[in-house]
Write a structure and sequence with these properties.
The complex is a heterodimer of chains A (216) and B (156). With 216 residues, chain A is of the alpha+beta class. Chain A has helices spanning 2-24, 65-68, 85-103, 105-110, 125-135, 146-154, 198-211, and strands at 43-49, 54-57, 62-64, 72-78, 111-117, 139-143, 160-167, 170-175, 179-182, 187-192. In chain B, strands 1, 2, 3, 4, 5, 6, 7, 8, 9 and 10 form a ten-stranded mixed beta sheet that branches. The longest helix of chain B is centred in the first third of the chain and has 18 residues, at 3-20. Classes of the chains: A alpha+beta (216), B mainly beta (156). The interface between A and B is large, with 38 and 33 residues.
Chain lengths: 216, 156
Amino acid sequence: MRSLVSYMKYGLLALGLAGIAFYLYIGPPPKSPPLPQELVGMMAGAPKEITSFQLVDQENKPFTLASLQGHWSMLFFGYAHCPDICPVAMEDLKEIFAILEKTSPNTFQAGRGIFVSVDPQRDTPEMLAGYVRFFHKKFMGITGSEEALSAFSRQMGAGYRIIPGKSADDYLVAHTSNFYLIDPLGQFVAYFSPPHDPAAIAAKWTAIRLAYGDSP
Amino acid sequence: MTLKPLLLAALLALPLAGWAADPARAVDPWVREAPANSQVLAAYITLENPGATPLHLVSVTSPLFSKVELHQTINKDGMAMMESVAHMAVPAAGKVVMAPGGLHVMLIGPTRPLHNGDKVPLVLTFAGAGTQSVEAVVRPGGSGHEPMDHGTQHKH
Protein backbone atom coordinates (compact mmCIF):
# COMPACT_ATOMS: atom_id res chain seq x y z
CA MET A 1 0.00 0.00 0.00
CA ARG A 2 2.82 2.35 0.92
CA SER A 3 4.38 1.92 -2.51
CA LEU A 4 1.06 2.71 -4.16
CA VAL A 5 0.75 5.92 -2.15
CA SER A 6 4.27 7.05 -2.99
CA TYR A 7 3.62 6.11 -6.58
CA MET A 8 0.51 8.31 -6.54
CA LYS A 9 2.53 11.12 -4.99
CA TYR A 10 4.96 10.97 -7.89
CA GLY A 11 2.07 10.87 -10.30
CA LEU A 12 0.52 13.98 -8.71
CA LEU A 13 3.89 15.73 -8.71
CA ALA A 14 4.35 14.91 -12.39
CA LEU A 15 0.82 16.15 -13.12
CA GLY A 16 1.50 19.36 -11.21
CA LEU A 17 4.76 19.97 -13.06
CA ALA A 18 3.06 19.14 -16.33
CA GLY A 19 0.31 21.65 -15.50
CA ILE A 20 2.83 24.40 -14.74
CA ALA A 21 4.68 23.57 -17.92
CA PHE A 22 1.44 23.70 -19.88
CA TYR A 23 0.54 27.18 -18.56
CA LEU A 24 4.06 28.49 -19.07
CA TYR A 25 4.33 27.27 -22.60
CA ILE A 26 0.79 27.21 -23.86
CA GLY A 27 0.22 27.95 -27.54
CA PRO A 28 2.29 27.04 -30.59
CA PRO A 29 5.89 27.01 -29.45
CA PRO A 30 8.82 28.63 -31.23
CA LYS A 31 11.22 26.26 -32.91
CA SER A 32 13.26 25.73 -29.75
CA PRO A 33 11.08 26.20 -26.69
CA PRO A 34 13.00 26.68 -23.47
CA LEU A 35 12.44 23.69 -21.20
CA PRO A 36 12.03 23.99 -17.44
CA GLN A 37 15.11 22.49 -15.85
CA GLU A 38 13.12 20.67 -13.18
CA LEU A 39 11.35 18.62 -15.81
CA VAL A 40 14.43 16.87 -17.05
CA GLY A 41 16.94 14.85 -15.15
CA MET A 42 19.64 15.40 -17.67
CA MET A 43 19.23 18.31 -20.05
CA ALA A 44 21.08 18.62 -23.28
CA GLY A 45 20.96 22.39 -22.79
CA ALA A 46 18.81 24.06 -25.43
CA PRO A 47 17.37 21.59 -27.95
CA LYS A 48 20.19 20.89 -30.36
CA GLU A 49 19.64 20.45 -34.06
CA ILE A 50 20.88 17.20 -35.47
CA THR A 51 22.72 17.63 -38.75
CA SER A 52 22.08 15.39 -41.74
CA PHE A 53 23.13 11.75 -41.62
CA GLN A 54 22.66 8.61 -43.65
CA LEU A 55 21.82 5.34 -41.88
CA VAL A 56 19.57 2.36 -42.70
CA ASP A 57 16.61 0.93 -40.80
CA GLN A 58 15.68 -2.68 -40.04
CA GLU A 59 14.01 -2.97 -43.46
CA ASN A 60 17.21 -1.81 -45.13
CA LYS A 61 15.54 1.47 -46.08
CA PRO A 62 17.45 4.75 -45.77
CA PHE A 63 17.09 6.41 -42.38
CA THR A 64 17.95 10.12 -42.46
CA LEU A 65 17.29 13.35 -40.60
CA ALA A 66 13.90 13.52 -42.34
CA SER A 67 13.05 10.12 -40.80
CA LEU A 68 13.46 11.63 -37.32
CA GLN A 69 11.11 14.50 -38.07
CA GLY A 70 7.46 14.14 -37.11
CA HIS A 71 8.13 11.65 -34.29
CA TRP A 72 9.33 11.70 -30.72
CA SER A 73 12.19 9.20 -30.70
CA MET A 74 13.91 7.64 -27.71
CA LEU A 75 17.29 6.32 -28.86
CA PHE A 76 19.58 3.74 -27.32
CA PHE A 77 23.04 2.93 -28.69
CA GLY A 78 24.04 -0.69 -28.31
CA TYR A 79 24.64 -3.99 -30.07
CA ALA A 80 22.65 -7.19 -30.37
CA HIS A 81 25.48 -9.45 -29.12
CA CYS A 82 25.15 -7.80 -25.74
CA PRO A 83 23.57 -10.07 -23.12
CA ASP A 84 23.11 -7.70 -20.20
CA ILE A 85 23.02 -3.91 -20.62
CA CYS A 86 21.26 -3.71 -24.01
CA PRO A 87 18.34 -6.09 -23.37
CA VAL A 88 17.93 -4.53 -19.92
CA ALA A 89 17.63 -1.12 -21.59
CA MET A 90 15.20 -2.49 -24.19
CA GLU A 91 13.08 -4.04 -21.42
CA ASP A 92 13.14 -0.68 -19.61
CA LEU A 93 12.10 1.11 -22.81
CA LYS A 94 9.29 -1.41 -23.24
CA GLU A 95 8.17 -0.60 -19.70
CA ILE A 96 8.32 3.14 -20.51
CA PHE A 97 5.97 2.54 -23.45
CA ALA A 98 3.64 0.40 -21.33
CA ILE A 99 3.41 3.25 -18.80
CA LEU A 100 2.86 5.86 -21.54
CA GLU A 101 0.12 3.79 -23.12
CA LYS A 102 -1.80 4.12 -19.84
CA THR A 103 -0.74 7.60 -18.69
CA SER A 104 -0.26 9.58 -21.90
CA PRO A 105 -1.79 7.99 -25.03
CA ASN A 106 -0.56 10.89 -27.19
CA THR A 107 3.05 10.46 -26.09
CA PHE A 108 2.68 6.73 -26.73
CA GLN A 109 1.20 7.48 -30.15
CA ALA A 110 3.84 10.03 -31.15
CA GLY A 111 6.72 8.12 -29.63
CA ARG A 112 8.92 5.30 -30.78
CA GLY A 113 12.00 3.53 -29.55
CA ILE A 114 15.09 3.31 -31.74
CA PHE A 115 17.89 0.83 -31.13
CA VAL A 116 21.00 2.19 -32.84
CA SER A 117 23.36 -0.70 -33.43
CA VAL A 118 26.98 0.43 -33.30
CA ASP A 119 28.05 -3.06 -34.40
CA PRO A 120 27.24 -3.07 -38.15
CA GLN A 121 29.65 -5.96 -38.71
CA ARG A 122 27.37 -8.40 -36.89
CA ASP A 123 24.01 -6.59 -36.76
CA THR A 124 22.51 -6.68 -40.23
CA PRO A 125 19.15 -4.96 -40.84
CA GLU A 126 17.51 -8.43 -40.97
CA MET A 127 19.02 -9.31 -37.60
CA LEU A 128 17.87 -5.98 -36.16
CA ALA A 129 14.33 -6.53 -37.45
CA GLY A 130 13.97 -9.69 -35.35
CA TYR A 131 15.72 -8.07 -32.43
CA VAL A 132 13.57 -4.94 -32.06
CA ARG A 133 10.26 -6.64 -32.86
CA PHE A 134 10.79 -9.02 -29.98
CA PHE A 135 10.63 -6.08 -27.57
CA HIS A 136 7.90 -3.80 -28.93
CA LYS A 137 5.96 -3.02 -32.09
CA LYS A 138 6.90 0.66 -31.67
CA PHE A 139 10.63 -0.09 -31.77
CA MET A 140 12.85 0.13 -34.78
CA GLY A 141 16.51 -0.61 -35.37
CA ILE A 142 19.00 1.45 -37.32
CA THR A 143 22.65 1.05 -38.20
CA GLY A 144 25.09 2.13 -40.90
CA SER A 145 28.71 2.53 -41.83
CA GLU A 146 31.34 3.03 -39.13
CA GLU A 147 31.81 6.64 -40.23
CA ALA A 148 28.09 7.45 -40.30
CA LEU A 149 27.50 5.86 -36.88
CA SER A 150 30.42 7.62 -35.31
CA ALA A 151 29.33 11.02 -36.67
CA PHE A 152 25.69 10.44 -35.69
CA SER A 153 26.46 9.28 -32.15
CA ARG A 154 28.84 12.19 -31.54
CA GLN A 155 25.98 14.65 -32.13
CA MET A 156 24.35 13.40 -28.94
CA GLY A 157 27.55 12.76 -27.08
CA ALA A 158 26.98 9.01 -27.27
CA GLY A 159 30.20 7.07 -27.36
CA TYR A 160 31.22 3.53 -28.13
CA ARG A 161 34.39 1.55 -28.62
CA ILE A 162 35.11 -1.90 -30.03
CA ILE A 163 37.17 -4.03 -27.67
CA PRO A 164 39.01 -6.71 -29.65
CA GLY A 165 38.48 -10.29 -28.48
CA LYS A 166 40.01 -13.65 -29.23
CA SER A 167 38.91 -13.73 -32.88
CA ALA A 168 37.70 -11.41 -35.64
CA ASP A 169 34.03 -11.88 -34.75
CA ASP A 170 34.44 -12.41 -31.03
CA TYR A 171 34.70 -8.91 -29.57
CA LEU A 172 32.95 -6.70 -27.10
CA VAL A 173 31.55 -3.22 -27.51
CA ALA A 174 31.70 -0.58 -24.80
CA HIS A 175 28.98 2.02 -25.15
CA THR A 176 27.11 4.75 -23.30
CA SER A 177 23.90 3.39 -21.85
CA ASN A 178 21.85 6.59 -21.79
CA PHE A 179 18.54 7.08 -23.54
CA TYR A 180 18.53 10.06 -25.91
CA LEU A 181 15.31 11.93 -26.70
CA ILE A 182 14.84 13.53 -30.13
CA ASP A 183 11.90 15.88 -30.75
CA PRO A 184 9.72 15.93 -33.92
CA LEU A 185 11.84 18.76 -35.35
CA GLY A 186 14.85 16.46 -35.31
CA GLN A 187 16.45 18.12 -32.31
CA PHE A 188 18.22 16.39 -29.45
CA VAL A 189 16.34 17.42 -26.28
CA ALA A 190 17.43 15.36 -23.30
CA TYR A 191 19.25 12.29 -22.18
CA PHE A 192 18.52 9.90 -19.36
CA SER A 193 21.43 8.14 -17.73
CA PRO A 194 21.21 4.78 -15.94
CA PRO A 195 19.94 3.37 -13.71
CA HIS A 196 16.76 3.91 -15.70
CA ASP A 197 13.51 4.42 -13.83
CA PRO A 198 10.81 3.77 -16.46
CA ALA A 199 8.07 5.65 -14.55
CA ALA A 200 10.23 8.76 -14.08
CA ILE A 201 11.38 8.75 -17.71
CA ALA A 202 7.80 8.31 -18.98
CA ALA A 203 6.64 11.25 -16.81
CA LYS A 204 9.48 13.48 -18.00
CA TRP A 205 8.94 12.58 -21.63
CA THR A 206 5.25 13.53 -21.32
CA ALA A 207 6.12 16.76 -19.48
CA ILE A 208 8.59 17.74 -22.20
CA ARG A 209 5.93 17.14 -24.87
CA LEU A 210 3.51 19.32 -22.88
CA ALA A 211 6.13 22.05 -22.75
CA TYR A 212 6.11 21.95 -26.53
CA GLY A 213 2.39 22.66 -26.42
CA ASP A 214 1.31 19.11 -27.23
CA SER A 215 -1.63 17.49 -25.51
CA PRO A 216 -1.23 14.61 -23.05
CA MET B 1 34.01 -61.05 -8.15
CA THR B 2 34.25 -59.49 -4.73
CA LEU B 3 34.81 -56.20 -6.48
CA LYS B 4 31.33 -56.19 -7.99
CA PRO B 5 29.31 -55.27 -4.89
CA LEU B 6 31.91 -52.69 -3.98
CA LEU B 7 31.70 -51.15 -7.42
CA LEU B 8 27.93 -51.14 -7.26
CA ALA B 9 27.97 -49.49 -3.87
CA ALA B 10 30.42 -46.90 -5.13
CA LEU B 11 28.24 -46.17 -8.17
CA LEU B 12 25.15 -45.84 -6.00
CA ALA B 13 26.95 -43.57 -3.60
CA LEU B 14 28.24 -41.25 -6.33
CA PRO B 15 25.07 -39.31 -7.09
CA LEU B 16 24.26 -39.24 -3.39
CA ALA B 17 27.67 -37.76 -2.66
CA GLY B 18 27.15 -35.23 -5.42
CA TRP B 19 23.81 -34.21 -3.97
CA ALA B 20 25.02 -34.07 -0.43
CA ALA B 21 27.95 -31.93 -1.46
CA ASP B 22 25.93 -29.07 -2.99
CA PRO B 23 28.34 -26.30 -2.04
CA ALA B 24 25.98 -23.33 -2.25
CA ARG B 25 22.32 -22.42 -2.13
CA ALA B 26 21.17 -21.08 -5.51
CA VAL B 27 18.39 -18.54 -5.10
CA ASP B 28 16.13 -17.58 -8.00
CA PRO B 29 18.26 -18.63 -10.97
CA TRP B 30 16.86 -17.07 -14.14
CA VAL B 31 17.76 -16.38 -17.76
CA ARG B 32 16.49 -13.26 -19.53
CA GLU B 33 14.17 -14.08 -22.39
CA ALA B 34 15.84 -12.76 -25.55
CA PRO B 35 14.92 -12.32 -29.22
CA ALA B 36 14.81 -15.67 -31.02
CA ASN B 37 17.85 -14.78 -33.12
CA SER B 38 20.00 -13.80 -30.12
CA GLN B 39 23.36 -15.49 -29.94
CA VAL B 40 24.02 -14.36 -26.38
CA LEU B 41 21.86 -14.49 -23.27
CA ALA B 42 22.48 -13.82 -19.61
CA ALA B 43 21.75 -15.88 -16.51
CA TYR B 44 21.55 -14.47 -13.00
CA ILE B 45 21.80 -16.43 -9.75
CA THR B 46 22.14 -15.40 -6.16
CA LEU B 47 24.53 -17.83 -4.49
CA GLU B 48 24.47 -18.21 -0.73
CA ASN B 49 27.29 -19.92 1.08
CA PRO B 50 26.14 -21.61 4.28
CA GLY B 51 29.65 -22.91 4.97
CA ALA B 52 32.50 -21.55 7.00
CA THR B 53 34.92 -21.34 4.07
CA PRO B 54 34.66 -19.04 1.06
CA LEU B 55 33.52 -20.56 -2.24
CA HIS B 56 34.83 -19.65 -5.65
CA LEU B 57 32.61 -20.20 -8.67
CA VAL B 58 35.08 -20.82 -11.46
CA SER B 59 32.96 -22.10 -14.34
CA VAL B 60 29.47 -22.82 -15.58
CA THR B 61 28.37 -25.15 -18.36
CA SER B 62 25.02 -25.81 -19.98
CA PRO B 63 23.96 -28.44 -22.52
CA LEU B 64 21.86 -25.74 -24.21
CA PHE B 65 24.80 -23.44 -25.01
CA SER B 66 28.06 -23.91 -26.85
CA LYS B 67 29.98 -21.69 -24.45
CA VAL B 68 29.42 -20.15 -21.04
CA GLU B 69 31.51 -17.39 -19.43
CA LEU B 70 31.45 -15.48 -16.17
CA HIS B 71 31.05 -11.77 -16.82
CA GLN B 72 30.63 -8.46 -15.15
CA THR B 73 29.17 -5.25 -16.55
CA ILE B 74 31.24 -2.30 -15.48
CA ASN B 75 31.03 1.42 -16.09
CA LYS B 76 34.21 3.09 -17.24
CA ASP B 77 34.67 6.58 -18.72
CA GLY B 78 30.88 6.98 -18.91
CA MET B 79 30.54 3.80 -20.94
CA ALA B 80 29.12 0.45 -19.99
CA MET B 81 31.17 -2.56 -20.92
CA MET B 82 31.55 -6.19 -20.05
CA GLU B 83 34.63 -7.90 -18.83
CA SER B 84 35.10 -11.56 -18.14
CA VAL B 85 35.87 -12.52 -14.58
CA ALA B 86 38.02 -15.52 -13.64
CA HIS B 87 35.82 -16.43 -10.71
CA MET B 88 33.06 -15.16 -8.46
CA ALA B 89 33.77 -15.31 -4.75
CA VAL B 90 31.03 -16.27 -2.32
CA PRO B 91 32.19 -15.31 1.18
CA ALA B 92 31.75 -17.74 4.06
CA ALA B 93 28.25 -17.35 5.50
CA GLY B 94 27.67 -14.73 2.83
CA LYS B 95 26.41 -14.45 -0.72
CA VAL B 96 27.13 -13.15 -4.18
CA VAL B 97 24.29 -11.48 -6.09
CA MET B 98 24.24 -11.60 -9.86
CA ALA B 99 21.88 -8.97 -11.28
CA PRO B 100 21.19 -6.94 -14.44
CA GLY B 101 23.94 -4.38 -14.89
CA GLY B 102 26.40 -6.31 -12.73
CA LEU B 103 27.70 -9.84 -12.40
CA HIS B 104 26.14 -12.36 -14.76
CA VAL B 105 26.68 -15.66 -16.49
CA MET B 106 27.04 -15.06 -20.22
CA LEU B 107 25.44 -17.84 -22.26
CA ILE B 108 26.77 -18.03 -25.82
CA GLY B 109 25.45 -19.92 -28.84
CA PRO B 110 22.05 -21.36 -27.84
CA THR B 111 21.26 -24.74 -29.43
CA ARG B 112 17.63 -23.64 -29.81
CA PRO B 113 15.52 -20.51 -29.19
CA LEU B 114 14.38 -20.22 -25.58
CA HIS B 115 11.07 -18.81 -24.50
CA ASN B 116 9.46 -17.49 -21.36
CA GLY B 117 9.01 -20.40 -18.95
CA ASP B 118 11.66 -22.69 -20.48
CA LYS B 119 14.13 -24.32 -18.12
CA VAL B 120 17.89 -24.03 -18.61
CA PRO B 121 20.08 -26.61 -16.86
CA LEU B 122 23.35 -25.16 -15.57
CA VAL B 123 26.26 -26.94 -13.90
CA LEU B 124 28.27 -24.74 -11.57
CA THR B 125 31.82 -25.67 -10.67
CA PHE B 126 33.37 -24.37 -7.46
CA ALA B 127 37.13 -24.50 -6.99
CA GLY B 128 37.92 -27.43 -4.70
CA ALA B 129 34.29 -27.84 -3.68
CA GLY B 130 32.76 -29.83 -6.53
CA THR B 131 29.90 -29.13 -8.86
CA GLN B 132 26.27 -28.26 -8.45
CA SER B 133 23.33 -28.53 -10.85
CA VAL B 134 20.92 -25.64 -11.08
CA GLU B 135 17.84 -25.11 -13.20
CA ALA B 136 17.26 -21.54 -14.35
CA VAL B 137 13.91 -20.38 -15.65
CA VAL B 138 13.57 -18.13 -18.72
CA ARG B 139 11.65 -14.91 -18.16
CA PRO B 140 11.68 -11.28 -19.34
CA GLY B 141 13.54 -8.81 -17.19
CA GLY B 142 14.62 -5.14 -17.14
CA SER B 143 16.24 -2.99 -14.46
CA GLY B 144 13.32 -3.46 -12.09
CA HIS B 145 13.71 -7.21 -12.08
CA GLU B 146 16.65 -7.70 -9.78
CA PRO B 147 16.39 -10.64 -7.42
CA MET B 148 13.76 -9.96 -4.82
CA ASP B 149 15.11 -8.15 -1.84
CA HIS B 150 13.40 -8.20 1.51
CA GLY B 151 11.64 -4.94 2.21
CA THR B 152 11.26 -3.75 -1.36
CA GLN B 153 8.16 -4.32 -3.39
CA HIS B 154 7.75 -4.89 -7.05
CA LYS B 155 6.06 -1.98 -8.77
CA HIS B 156 3.50 -3.78 -10.87
